[in-house]
């Protein structure tokens, strides 16, 4: 089945943000010969997995809002209202940003070199929500913790302007009296 590339128009059934020819040009420019040596089927499959992984790893963090209904297209882009902290538009409504394309190209190369690597990064992240409480657990992979944990910088950095800042970790208020002094035996039933 041929790859269906999202152009920014909300293409029905789109499964990649990047056309194979665009990925080929990107990897040729950086001298990644392994990409060109792979079959077109393998490259298209890697582009599909990269697109889905990026959407999943950064779900809930994209700036703006989805521009087409989920019933038309299940990808997170195209979006509208993508603005920076000052309110300035950073991506034209309905456009597929260059940074997203670069990230998909790099993620696809990683996926081609190490099949399942992106799925592993997605498994590292666990998010639980219960009412107003949301808890994120990550294993502290090379991408840090939270969304995108374990994602190489070549994938994560081009996406940075497109993402809302991560919410700060909640902190418990410090007691005004200070922490109680730790005493030997305090937590072991009084045994020394």
């Amino acid at each position: 089945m041929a790859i269906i590339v999202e152009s920014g128009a909300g293409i029905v059934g789109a499964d990649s943000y990047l056309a194979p020819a665009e990925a080929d040009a990107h990897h040729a420019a950086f001298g990644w010969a392994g990409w060109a040596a792979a079959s077109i089927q393998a490259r298209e499959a890697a582009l599909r997995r990269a697109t889905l992984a990026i959407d999943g790893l950064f779900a809930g963090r994209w700036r703006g809002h989805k521009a087409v209904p989920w019933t038309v297209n299940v990808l997170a882009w195209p979006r509208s209202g993508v603005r920076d902290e000052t309110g300035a538009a950073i991506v034209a409504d309905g456009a597929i940003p260059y940074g997203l394309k670069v990230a998909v190209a790099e993620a696809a190369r990683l996926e081609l070199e190490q099949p399942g690597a992106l799925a592993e990064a997605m498994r590292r992240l666990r998010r639980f929500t219960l009412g107003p409480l949301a808890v994120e657990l990550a294993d502290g992979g090379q991408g840090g913790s939270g969304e995108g944990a374990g994602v190489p910088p070549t994938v994560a950095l081009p996406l940075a302007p497109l993402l809302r800042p991560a919410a700060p970790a909640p902190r418990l208020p410090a007691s005004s009296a200070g922490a109680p002094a730790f005493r030997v035996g305090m937590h072991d039933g009084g045994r020394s």
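The helical segments are 20-29, 33-37, 40-57, 98-113, 117-124, 153-156. The longest strand covers residues 126-130.
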